[in-house]
Specification:
The protein is α+β, with helices and mostly antiparallel strands. 45% of the residues lie in helices and 15% in strands. A 4-stranded mixed sheet has the order 3-1-2-4, with helices on both faces.
Length: 184
Amino acid sequence: MTPAQRPLRLSTEAQISERFGRALRSADGVEGAHCIHELWMRGAMSVHIQAQLAELWKHAADSIPEWLPTQFIEWLPLAYETARLFTPKRNGRSNIYLVLLDYRDTGPGSLGVYVGMTSHTPQLRFEQHKAGIRAAGSVLKRGLELLAGPTAHLQGIRRADAANIEEQFAEALRARGLFVQGGH
């Protein structure tokens, strides 16, 4: 199940806490990730999310899904909400991806996002950026990690759809106040 589907959305916080404890005890990174993700989407305090992330990495690092960010991102729920606005029409070989950008040296709490499209897997494209291969300067210099969760439904789409979604997604994120690079 994808994080955007929010499999724990009907669970109480007590149920999520209990499930998270079980996930830690059984080193179940996927279950733990869904617990953290649900609390994140509900607006839990950043210190709690950071503490849970640290515990999950300590107990279940080998099974944590790639869609769970490694650090707290205040606007992550907004990225999911915005990504849901886009529905590809046809299948193809293109993928939309997001990269977390670090601009904290320019001001407190300044994390941005890069919106891109690729015919490669998003992870491979991120690695290419970081290696300087057809790299966007913002990702090469400031890229922290791939944010796979919000764009999971925007994988394997037609190139023309991907080009339109990339541009519109970047504009929609900008309109919501995020610092956005890419999206061309």
